[in-house]
Amino acid sequence: MKNLYKILTLVIVCLLSQSCNDYPVDDNGLLVTDSEECYISSLILRGPDDRDVLISGVTIDDENNTITGIAKFGTNIKKLKPECGTAKDCIVTPTMGVWTDFSQPRQYTVISGNRQVKKTYTVTITLQGE
Q1: Its domain of life (predicted)?
Q2: Closest by alpha carbon to 110, among 43, 52, 50, 44?
Q3: Which tops the pLDDT comparison, 20 or 46?
């Protein structure tokens, strides 16, 4: 009976070690996976009061890699913090979540989880009433 437990334990350990997939880590310490998906699914722009300043969200055009949005009247579009949703395991450069000037179009590059696919989106924000 002890031999049976030893054999079962050995088989389970072998199966577990075989099923664990060791993904490498990139230069930033982020996991590199096999995901090839690469897109931005959402974008929020937060003002100094930490509230979303966009009127009704943004329009994301994946064919032309553009994102457009309209900020509420009176918003200082020179000082906004962008946040975005992406496909699983993607990274975005430059870093989001920092004060950013959107008075001119900005470009953000999304890099897939496997670090092989890149898409650069141009984000254009206008003020309501302009």
Answers
A1: Bacteria
A2: 43
A3: 46
Q: What is the DSSP letter of 80?
A: B
Alpha helices in 2-130 (DSSP H): 2-19
What is the SS3 assignment for 53? coil
The domain spans of the chain are 23-127
Dihedral, CA of residue 107, residue 116, residue 96 and residue 68, to nearest 10? 40
Task: Give 124's contacts (C-beta < 8 A, 6+ positions apart).
Answer: 66, 67, 68, 69, 105
CA 50 to chain centre: 20
Q: What is the pTM of this model?
A: 0.77
Kindly report, residue by residue over 61-97, the tens digit of the pLDDT: 999 999 999 999 999 999 999 999 999 889 999 999 9
Dihedral pair phi/psi, residue 115, rounded to 5°:
65, 20
Q: 23-127 in CATH: which number? A: 2.60.40.2340
